[in-house]
Amino acid sequence: MTEATDKVTLTIDGQSITVPKGTNVLEAAKLLGNDISAFCYHPGLPIVAQCRQCLVSIEKNPKLQPSCQQVVGEGMVVHTTDPQSTLARKQQLEFTLVNHPIDCPICDKAGECTLQKLYFDHDNADSRVDTAKVHKAKVVDLGPTIVLDQERCILCSRCIRTCDVVAGQHQLEFANRGDHEILTTAPGEQLDNPYSLNTVDVCPVGALTAKDFRFTMRAWELEATPSVCNGCATGCNIEIHHKNERAWRLVPRLNAEVNQYWMCDEGRTTYHPLREERLASAIVDGLPASWDKAIQAAAKRLGVFLKDASQVGVVLSALCSNEDNYALAKLAKAWGAGHVYVAGKPPVPARADGKLRVADVNPNATGVKAICEALGLNPIATYELDRGVPANLRALVVLGDVVPGLDATKLKELEVISLAAHERGPVPHARVALPIAAWAETGATTTNHKGLVQRMHAAFAPPGAAIAGWDAVVRLAAATGQKLAWTHPRDVFKDMTQTVVAWKDLAWQRDVRPLALRFAGSRG
Ligand code: SF4
Ligand code: SF4
Ligand code: FES
Fold this sequence. Notes:
524 residues; Alpha-Beta Plaits; Rossmann fold; 3 domains; 5-stranded mixed beta sheet; 12 helices; 23% helix; binds iron/sulfur cluster
């Protein structure tokens, strides 16, 4: 016996390994770099061992065992490359392929399909089927988000279990038997739960395709950049899949503390607005201008009021990063601005489901709060401006384009300087508008509703003349006689974490280069 009773030592293919009790053989083998073929097993789902693609030999056990279901035992001796288990997995793969339509050239999953990968890894042989394949329905509309190709389905049940476990709704089921067995919606159900698109991720083949993504881009043409969903305060970890300076889809990234393997459907659509109504150049009095001209114009207009800074207000944004907010909050402090507001979207109580979705649809309200507390600022929600603009408020520097409470009439009364990614909200009413990067275009951090500070990476460059929000603030500060000596988001982060006590031990994660998906393993 090993000394620690919560560990088990076994031998896999002649190599000894010690793993926590309860680990399955398949995961233990993975730790040794041996990726046993598998279809129905998913680490985030209950184990059903129904595809038999992961069979291995275990000494003293007369029959082959599914390694996904077999828990490790002390002294166990496992063989995954012996002739018996290798042949069993090869035959099982051939069986799975008997009626498969081999749609690879037109299949959305091609390039990230487990069946395709295993065929090349383990079989690579011509088909021995000389009779007509059993055909099943194609383009089956399962609901608002997903289309099913029944003959591509290999009946692994991952999607059924995903609906059961992630959404808590039994919306998918198998019907019929033998080679006429099909995946279908459960009686009286559509596949329409708020987490439905996770089934597309886990499907090991191209049976389930997302209406939003299908036929838009081949997987191997995309690059993946790790980031954090900006759809709500949960901050699910995601990958932005992008090409040609634009995002094509968002998929969840494993974070056991935040979202495990999942994200909600609404979050997946948050890449669409990245391209809408972008502010791509600076604007002064309604006309495009260079950065220099715009910054000088902003400084000149603010300068009149900064002589008595009680007339100046700033609006921070619960939709922008920690760095952008910290920079503007610090400038407000340096100016001695008389008014500090925080803007954000109103809560949506119906979203809160006790799973991932929460009522707060702002990604960074917690971060703004922490920054303001650390700097001794007491921001007021911009909703308060519904009651009227304070008599002595004359100029407003606004971060972001969502500012409830500030309608066009009120904005016209003020000298507004906007720092925004999109030309909407206060931006069309601003005297000077400065274009800044959106969340997917800049390296920065955001703080979820539990106070977890998470890193977003830039997937691609912002459009036109847009720059990082904190950088725009640095330029505005310099033009108004203040010095913010930062040249990289890491500098802002370092300053910020020295100011916000709860963040003092956080380290800046280095930038990562996008990973070409053609070099990544199969998903699902
Ligand atoms: S649709 Fe995909 S995930 Fe669902 S049972 Fe078929 S192969 Fe498995
Ligand atoms: S729960 Fe929130 S953070 Fe997570 S994917 Fe959905 S919108 Fe994004
Ligand atoms: S992965 Fe083990 S039986 Fe399917």
